[in-house]
Design the sequence.
């Protein structure tokens, strides 16, 4: 009778940041027959299930033909669908070899759960294109985020100028020779200037980042 025991379930994150949902995981295990490690090739199938053994919605069984088993050890790459809300489940992998379902189901380790538990709708900055499972958030292109009690309010401007008016009044004196007393009279003078300054930037030094939404 054949049985499988998981030695290691490794989430193949590679160089990806923790918040990037992995596109695949590496499943490693052992295959024994009557307690002896085998050297064979086997057709295997892997299914993502919950704690009850039911398939997780949105997943399909993954069939891998001719898996090489050497000294009882094997490893397969299993694709992960980042659109599935993994945080809603306690996921396991159910393995079958040549049609025989092997027990117990193998739990996914905490790394995948931590990665998958990022809430939908989260917006984050990246120094490059959006990773798998994220989409470019265009409303923040050319804009700063600004805290508020509700989403969607906009305001501000990238540039500004100033306008104003000056007001000047003076009295200009003259002598009216026609007057018998020779007194000096004054004529008031009043004028205004309206001005507008050049348009200048409001922006401090900046570095562009790519905003992405989960």
Sequence:
């Amino acid at each position: 009778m054949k049985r499988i025991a998981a030695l290691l379930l490794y989430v193949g994150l590679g160089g990806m940041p923790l918040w990037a949902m992995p596109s695949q995981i590496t499943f490693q295990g052992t295959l024994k027959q009557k307690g002896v490690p085998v050297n064979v090739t086997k057709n295997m199938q892997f299914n993502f299930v919950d704690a009850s053994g039911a398939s997780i919605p949105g997943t399909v069984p993954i069939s891998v033909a001719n898996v090489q088993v050497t000294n009882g050890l094997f490893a397969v790459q299993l694709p992960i669908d980042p659109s599935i809300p993994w945080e809603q489940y306690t996921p396991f992998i159910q393995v079958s070899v040549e049609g025989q379902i092997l027990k117990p189901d193998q739990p996914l380790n905490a790394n995948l759960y931590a990665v998958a538990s990022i809430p939908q709708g989260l917006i984050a900055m990246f120094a490059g294109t959006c990773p798998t499972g994220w989409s470019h958030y265009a409303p923040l292109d050319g804009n700063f985020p600004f805290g508020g009690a509700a989403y969607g309010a906009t305001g501000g401007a990238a540039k500004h100028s100033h306008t104003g008016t000056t007001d000047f009044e003076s009295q200009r004196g003259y002598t009216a020779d026609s007057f018998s007393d020779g007194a000096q009279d004054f004529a008031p003078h009043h004028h205004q200037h309206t001005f507008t300054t050049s348009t200048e930037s409001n922006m401090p030094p900046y570095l562009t980042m790519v905003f992405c939404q989960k």
About this structure: The two ends are 45 Å apart (CA to CA). Confidence is low (pLDDT under 50) at residues 1-20. Residues 120-214 form one domain. The helical segments are 110-116.
